[in-house]
Amino acid sequence: MAPTPDITHRRGLIRAALAVSALTLAHRNSNAQETWPARPVRVIVPFPAGGVVDLVTRAVTDRLAATLKQPFIVEARPGANGNIGTEAAARSAPDGYTLLAATPATVTQPLLSGAVKYKATDFVGVGSIGAPPNLFVVAPNVPVKTLAELVAFARSGANTLSVTNPGVGTSNHLGQELFFSLAGLQTLNVRYPGQPQMIPDLAAGLVQFGLVTAALALPHVREGRLRALAIGAPKRWSELPQVPTLAEAGFGQAMFLPWYGLAAPVGTPRAIVTRLSDEIQSALATPEVSGRLEKMGAYITPGSADAFDALMRSESSRWAQVIRQRNIRES
Domain containing 224: what range? Predict the structure, then answer.
């Protein structure tokens, strides 16, 4: 039996109402993304304030705050080799208002311990920022001037070479483990909460060797409190032109550059990720931001969200091999 005119009319009204509701919802969602950010954005740095990750992050977020007209609040949440802050970021709402200052530890920590409560895949890349190189340094009381002499010293000494470790799975730690594996050395790791805490002991000769971010080590090298043996970079640094690269020092296979960038919890709207990525790349192109990063000795490494995602995946694979070879575990 054909529907009555009243029923047909009511059905038409219902369809019209549903269509209007759908359009309204779509419009609201569109406006929500178009007006982002409508409030301050939190950027979690999972390492101590004043460290290189904090400084690199602020160089970019200061510019983002100016261009996006909202505060970017950098929140240092150190502890447990970066796991406390990183886990907090992973558990945050994927709405574009919480970001993570991502480093190699973001992908290596889940490889080191089953107790870590996040995975690298809990994040999406937003954009690459830079790669501050490390200096291979020794305390002034260590009688070596080159990496080759350091290897000979470590092999012939009665005591195991003591080395600083600012956190298991950090780029400093894994970078020196890569070097030790190629040189065939066993070492004694001395743990610290971060680089700012380890440098005084290294300069005092309480620990013999360490990898230190170039900008943090520079004043100590210039004043003779540390001796630089090599820099982990593709070319010499203009601030210390006498210091050879790893390749020039005979250990090119140990070459690596730490990478820093911003990531967001998985599920963050793609429109927000894309906009943030574009803004980061624009910021890196400004003399203000590039100048701040260059003063830290950082290589500026612009990279889109997709490129940063690919980097995190490839780095996870690379460091998994080093972790297995050196039998590195979180204790």
Answer: 134-254
Residue (of 118, 120, 127) closest to 104 by Cα position: 120
Cα dist from 99 to 87, 257, 276, whole Å: 12, 22, 10
Q: What percent of the chain has pLDDT over 90?
A: 66
Whether residue 11 is contained in a domain is answered as no
Among 222, 254, 286, give the residue marking a domain's end. 254
Tokens of 115: 């107790």
**Does 140 map to a domain?**
yes
| Number of DSSP helices (H) and strands (E) in the chain, helices first | 11, 11
Residue 292 located in a structural domain: yes
* Global confidence as pTM: 0.76
Summarised one tens digit per residue, pLDDT across range 241-285 is: 999 999 999 999 999 888 999 999 999 999 999 999 999 999 999
Q: What is the CATH number of the domain that holds 119?
A: 3.40.190.150
Residues 83 and 45 in one domain: yes
- Residue 4: pLDDT band (50, 70, 90) is low
Report the length, in residues, of the chain. Answer: 331
Which residues pair with residue 123 across a beta bridge? 265
Strand order of the β-sheet with 123-131 is: 72-76, 41-45, 98-102, 260-265, 123-131, 299-303
Contact 135, 231 (CB under 8 A): yes
d(CA 242, CA 228): 9
Question: Residue 226: which CATH number?
Answer: 3.40.190.10
Query: Domains in the chain: how many in total?
Result: 2
**In terms of domains, do 53 and 127 share one?**
yes
Per-residue pLDDT of 200-231, as tens digits, reads: 999 999 999 999 999 889 999 999 999 999 99
Angle between the 195-203 and 214-222 helix axes, to the nearest 10 degrees?
20
Q: Tell me the C-alpha to C-alpha distance, in Å, between residue 158 and each of 152, 161, 175.
A: 12, 9, 25
